[in-house]
Amino acid sequence: CGQCGKGFSTSLALVVHRRLHGEERPYEPYECPECGKGFRHSSHLTNHRRLHGQERPYECPECGKGFRQSGHLANHRRTHSGERPHACGLCGASFAQRSTLLQHRRIH
């Protein structure tokens, strides 16, 4: 952070922190009527609103588990296929989820 010098492991964490200093919020014209959270794109608001309800329109054809977002279903399907497309450039370990790879990189 340019104001207080605190460090963060992700850019999103820095953005959230900078708001504590009163820095201007980004332009987010789509606001959730239930919680007030703002979004830049209407599709992001649509996905967010599913969090407030129980709607899970994307169902795994192999096990029947439901998901709120199509990308989450795509990630889940890797548990059935064994696909591990995210590889560490330092040690070669591979992961089904990008988030797991990012977490793994912190050990190097």
Automatic annotation (TrEMBL):
<keyword id="KW-0539">Nucleus</keyword>
<keyword id="KW-0479">Metal-binding</keyword>
<dbReference type="InterPro" id="IPR013087">
    <property type="entry name" value="Znf_C2H2_type"/>
</dbReference>
<dbReference type="GO" id="GO:0005634">
    <property type="term" value="C:nucleus"/>
</dbReference>
<dbReference type="Pfam" id="PF00096">
    <property type="entry name" value="zf-C2H2"/>
</dbReference>
<protein>
    <submittedName>
        <fullName>ZKSC8 protein</fullName>
    </submittedName>
</protein>
<keyword id="KW-0677">Repeat</keyword>
<feature type="domain" description="C2H2-type">
    <location>
        <begin position="1"/>
        <end position="26"/>
    </location>
</feature>
<dbReference type="InterPro" id="IPR036236">
    <property type="entry name" value="Znf_C2H2_sf"/>
</dbReference>
<keyword id="KW-0238">DNA-binding</keyword>
<comment type="similarity">
    <text>Belongs to the krueppel C2H2-type zinc-finger protein family.</text>
</comment>
<dbReference type="GO" id="GO:0008270">
    <property type="term" value="F:zinc ion binding"/>
</dbReference>
<keyword id="KW-0863">Zinc-finger</keyword>
<feature type="domain" description="C2H2-type">
    <location>
        <begin position="30"/>
        <end position="57"/>
    </location>
</feature>
<feature type="domain" description="C2H2-type">
    <location>
        <begin position="58"/>
        <end position="85"/>
    </location>
</feature>
<keyword id="KW-0805">Transcription regulation</keyword>
<keyword id="KW-0804">Transcription</keyword>
<dbReference type="GO" id="GO:0000978">
    <property type="term" value="F:RNA polymerase II cis-regulatory region sequence-specific DNA binding"/>
</dbReference>
<keyword id="KW-0862">Zinc</keyword>
<dbReference type="GO" id="GO:0000981">
    <property type="term" value="F:DNA-binding transcription factor activity, RNA polymerase II-specific"/>
</dbReference>
<feature type="domain" description="C2H2-type">
    <location>
        <begin position="86"/>
        <end position="108"/>
    </location>
</feature>
